[in-house]
User: Fold this.
Amino acid sequence: MKTALITGVAGQDGSYLAELLLKKDYEVYGTVRRSSTSNLERIKHIQDDIKLIHGDLLDQNSLIEAIEGSRPDEIYNLAGQSFVPATWDKPVLTGEFTALGATRLLEAIRLVNRNIRFYQASTSEMFGKVAEVPQNEQTRFYPRSPYGVAKLYAHWITVNYRESYDMYCCSGILFNHESPRRGLEFVTRKVSDAVARIKLGLSKELKMGNLDAKRDWGFAGDYVEVMWLMLQQNEPEDFVISTGETHSIEELVEIAFTHAGLDWKDYVVIDPKFVRPAEVDLLMGDSSKAREMLKWQPKVEFEELIRIMVDSDIKRYDTQEHSS
Ligand code: GDP
Assistant:
């Protein structure tokens, strides 16, 4: 029986990954911060099957203790505040959690047991102002937010520990991945939630930012599978994980409203408040390396994903109304 330790276990990806590892008969540990009032909603259904232990990316000793206490074979570093606009408000804290947090975790592994395999959640936000389309493992990075910059530090320190200490460290450069468990502030979920509310008469409009940006959106459930695959290889390597398709925010909005039988133009209002200081205009990933080497491919395609999210939010509000 293998043991895994997941930071950020209560997040979207952490919850899907924990489910996957439990199915594979892993013993699953997840870190929670003592100081935070963690929202455990996403792991409520598996809370009895996983072990929550103290671990804080700001606190080196807590990470050493978490590793000593759980004795994992694999560590997945998924923790962190990943909503991009919020990182302009807290650039220093973003660096502490995301950049130095990954370093503290790697340092803890180096001190406790160098044989532990490490997965770092890197992101397509590191490509930012993209140097080419589509983006692959060789594409030059150009982050456009404190989030992207901090993630880039974490990415390179992961590579550096691999090269310096011969540790099994991998970085997955995951493009946007969504699900009904996505936080309400992210654009896909903001739209699916608003469509549900408008459909049920609970709201009349949806305020949005830049509708022209384009993203390569996949399903989070498909993407956690590849995190695990990356740690099962003979040699540690980095991989781009994406669908290879790109769609604009306007297309997303149109698909979501149309699915509920509504015309988006009747409801969407542009509010400059949601326009960012610096934008990532276009993301589109080339995941050929993962498809060839890991035999991975995404299963849920974009339109289906959006329809699943809209249906899930409509159902959620419906159930709430009927139970109140
Ligand atoms: P990101 O790609 O990690 O920043 O994921 P998000 O889901 O937060 O944003 C995706 C894109 O949607 C960005 O280019 C945003 O500028 C754009 N966008 C347009 N309007 C909104 C909005 O109201 N909320 C969010 N979150 N993003 C918006």
